[in-house]
Design a protein that fits this description.
Elements (H helix, E strand, L loop, with lengths): L1 E4 L4 H9 L3 E4 L5 H11 L2 E4 L2 H9 L4 E3 L5 H12 L16 E4 L1 H4 L5 H6 L3 E4 L5 E3 L2 H10 L8
Parallel strand pairs: 1-2, 1-3, 3-4
Antiparallel strand pairs: 5-6, 6-7
Helix pairs in contact: 1-4
Bound molecules: zinc ion (ZN).
């Protein structure tokens, strides 16, 4: 899904990107700007701010009010509200730029040696250049969530 997250939901934004969603997040943004962005890009607002949520609703924008302060709970709230599906990341966790598949040889000088030797599949952010692989950060994320969102069942 495509979201705009308010300034209090930076961590949730990164989680959602890990799970394959497209999330715009700004470290500083006025309410008007967030509402404008939702409207212009046809995205769902996710916010912890009741006033902002109401304002968005009154303009007939899709908005989900998040209550919990804990990212795992926030994810569940959003899942209940929107029936989220999970897929592997297609967006940069840091900047939301699109990820593109890279050949192993193209990445050789961009990651530490042991990473390069141990992994086969690499992706790179088209916007900021950050390199991703199916490695420890995926495993840590699965451990943190307490389940594997990408498991085929
Ligand atoms: Zn990036």
């Amino acid at each position: 899904m495509r979201f705009v997250a308010d300034v209090m939901l930076g961590k949730l934004s990164r989680f959602l990107r890990m799970l394959g969603h497209d999330v715009l997040y700004f470290e500083r943004a006025e309410d008007d700007f967030l509402i404008y962005t939702c409207k212009e890009t046809a995205r769902t607002l996710i916010t912890k701010d009741r006033v902002l949520h109401k304002a968005a609703r009154s303009l007939h924008l899709d908005s989900v009010l998040i209550n919990s302060n804990y990212v795992r709970e926030q994810l569940k709230e959003l899942q209940r509200a929107k029936g989220l599906s999970f897929s592997k990341p297609t967006r940069c966790i840091t900047c939301n730029g699109p990820l593109i598949k890279r050949e192993k040889y193209e990445i050789e000088r961009l990651v530490p040696d042991f990473v390069w030797h141990r992994n086969r599949d690499f992706w790179q952010c088209k916007t900021c250049g950050k390199v991703y692989w199916d490695g420890s950060h995926t495993k840590n994320f699965v451990r943190f969530l307490g389940f594997n969102p990408w498991e085929e069942s």
